[in-house]
Amino acid sequence: MYQEVILDHYKHPHGRGLRDGDAEVHHVNPTCGDEITLRVKYDGTRIADVSYEGQGCSISQASASVLNDLLVGKDLAEAQKIQGAFLELMQSKGRIEPDDAMEEILEDAVAFAGVSKYPARVKCALLSWMAWKDATAQALGESEPAERKSA
Amino acid sequence: MTQLPGLLDTEAIRKDFPALDRVIHDGKKLVYLDNAATSQKPRQVLDALTEYYERHNANVHRGVHVLAEEATALYEGARDKVAEFINAPSRDEVIFTKNASESLNLVANMLGWADEPYKVDHETEIVITEMEHHSNIVPWQLLSQRTGAKLKWFGLTDDGRLDLSNINEVITEQTKIVSFVLVSNILGTHNPVEAIVRRAQEVGALVLIDASQAAPHMPLDVQALQADFVAFTGHKMCGPTGIGVLWGRQELLEDLPPFLGGGEMIETVSMSSSTYAPAPHKFEAGTPPIAQAVGLGAAVDYLNAIGMENIARHEQAITEYAVKRLLEVPDLRIIGPVTAEDRGAAISFTLGDIHPHDVGQVLDEQGIAVRVGHHCARPVCLRYGIPATTRASFYLYSTPAEVDALVDGLEHVRNFFG
């Protein structure tokens, strides 16, 4: 499950550090203590920035780095499509073999396909994505609690 | 092969445990070092479960047919075995529960509903320690919230032991109950019972000892401990899941009110009120875990045949060796006592900045089963400023070669994430 690309993102995370944002959330993965604080900055419906700080396992931290790569600069609708595809991959229990079409959408995130075989680690991979979804809902005006556990 | 004084004949013992023969991840021999979470089960226990279900299965007590009498004799026979195993003065002091958590919750609820002199209310205090398993924290938080009682605790020293320097301020005349762990599941620390019990007795407080990590590993004598209640679970001592024990002093069990109501725990029932059966049945409402109790009885027989003193000596040798070898691994920090003195066979550690989940996953790929996380003792992680630990824990079938495999595995983890 530890693809080279995951280890690269873990050791050299992209976009890490907290910057100005429209909303901030803090999510934890109670089973292993992964934590992330994440901020989103929107320019209309375009994602101007996703910044984050966190601690946790390589999967959770690398996933946040990949998220930053994939979502910053995208329009919300496009980002939601990517998030949906990643969620589907992570819930596939190893049954989805990423093809070219999927790689087109998910880029580096297809490296997490192997993680979906490990139920205990899926939450690690999804932590930052759930945090982003939550932060986006807050930033764009839907009322959501600022702190809650990732399911 | 490393030979250490005091080791058991693990080659013979391991033949009793089918799961230890597993080969996983394309040909890797299983190295099972997650015994503090649960032990593997010997064939003798598995056979007892099968035989019970195949030949004697019936509900216990009051039945007048052969199977019911056999099932009752087996269930109550298991109580006799457990009573003897812990040197209980009376078999009627042994209550079967579903696990140690239920045993601890049971005491908290007995006290929550009790009258004077046991009553816990806003003028009284409850004492625990910072190294408790969540199962010995949360029931007391609940009791404290419901009654207004003040919850206090002993802190920890930097080397993973209880800080008893302020014992007279922590345990006071207001203290009604002191509940603490005999051997910590995360730090491995073996706590000094005598000092705590002495102070509790001075102020007339009851003492509950969580012996979940002690009962499987060393002789347990509830009379020598001088506690009022002792809780432990079956599945960590070669027994099945779903069976735990609460031992309590007879006069307390007579005085304290029942918690769960139902069949089996009554004497007579009318529509307006009931009277209760004597202990232990008063605290065993409903059909009990019969097969599981029978399995625990078989586990007790198994452990007795090897000898608890011998098991303790074996684990002491393995623990000493494991501490020494683990400290050779660069960047490894043991969370808990760094000597084998007054410590059990669970060793928690961190490995540089590598997250324990990554450590555990890469060890698993090599066939080595350890536990990672906060081990249901999150306050300990907060105390030592770490998010989680990796924990290796040993038992009567653990070998020095398995310690070596762990150390080699950790070297591999370091290279992998280095």
Automatic annotation (TrEMBL), chain B:
Q: Which family does it belong to?
A: Belongs to the class-V pyridoxal-phosphate-dependent aminotransferase family. Csd subfamily.
- What is the scientific name of the source organism? Streptomyces mesophilus
- UniProt keyword Nucleus present: no
Note the Pfam families from the entry: Aminotran_5
UniProt keywords, alphabetically = Pyridoxal phosphate, Transferase
CDD domains, alphabetized? SufS_like (cd06453)
Determine the domain of life of the protein's source.
Answer: Bacteria
What is this protein's name?
cysteine desulfurase
Q: Which GO terms describe its biological process?
A: cysteine metabolic process
